[in-house]
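Lab meeting, item 3. Inverse folding demo.
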């Protein structure tokens, strides 16, 4: 569990119809801003667990804001917003819980890493250097979105920043590891996608057989670990059989 210092800047409150409003902490994607979003999200959940915030339905975090939805028959924005505002910036720092998740990844072959050579050429690096810098990046999950289990993970080494592909793929294989902008992600399902594919993990980001189907959560710290094809095949078989011990990969906050 790491302490994150939060800026003492008051958020903006924006209307979202007659059953919701947004608490906006900034106009950019940055660790400090996202930390404030997630801290408020956690504080609201704690207050609800204590029986407070009557009428609140749910909160939906994004990278820089938090949407608050409520039941207009049970409360009003005029009553709820001050209660939410009182939870903002509870002290100069907030402690954000986040697990350390090890992600085995194979960066070998045209089928697993079809964009690795192109990324290397555009970054003026060798493919081996791209892999090393991806492995060394300090990754943190910001939010989940787009599809069940897909995490937007910030912290990519700045030398690997690239825009999305000019021509998205119609089909990206499940569990592909990809980069774009200052982020990396792992595709939970086969789907269209426009990020650069540089590897593949045997893990499944969404698996309804598990007690908690979604593997990652906001605040998690990801550590990618390089594996070869043989190790990939062994782990993939265990994931398919449902015999992988996930506690070997996840350290509690």
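The presenter then showed the designed sequence:
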């Amino acid at each position: 569990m790491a302490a994150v210092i939060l800026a003492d800047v008051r958020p903006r409150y924006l209307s979202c119809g007659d059953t919701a409003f947004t608490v906006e902490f900034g106009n950019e994607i940055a660790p400090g801003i996202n930390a404030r979003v997630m801290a408020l999200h956690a504080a609201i959940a704690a207050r609800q667990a204590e029986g407070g915030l009557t009428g609140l339905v749910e909160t939906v975090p994004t990278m820089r804001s938090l949407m608050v939805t409520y039941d207009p028959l049970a409360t009003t924005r005029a009553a709820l917003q001050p209660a939410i505002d009182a939870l903002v910036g509870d002290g100069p720092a907030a402690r954000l819980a986040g697990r350390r998740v090890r992600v085995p990844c194979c960066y070998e072959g045209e089928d697993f890493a079809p964009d690795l050579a192109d990324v290397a050429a555009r970054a003026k690096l060798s493919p081996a250097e791209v892999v090393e810098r991806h492995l060394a990046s300090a990754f943190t999950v910001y939010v989940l979105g787009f599809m069940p289990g897909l995490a937007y993970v910030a912290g990519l080494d700045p030398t690997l920043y690239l825009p999305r592909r000019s021509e998205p793929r119609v089909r990206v294989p499940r569990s592909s590891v990809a980069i774009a902008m200052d982020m990396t992600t792992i595709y939970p399902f086969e789907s269209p996608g426009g990020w650069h594919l540089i590897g593949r993990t045997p893990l499944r980001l969404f698996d309804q057989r598990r007690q908690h189907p979604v593997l990652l959560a906001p605040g998690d710290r990801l550590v990618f670990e390089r594996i070869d094809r043989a190790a990939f095949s062994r782990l993939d078989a265990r994931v398919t059989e449902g015999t992988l011990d996930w506690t070997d990969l996840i350290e509690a906050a």
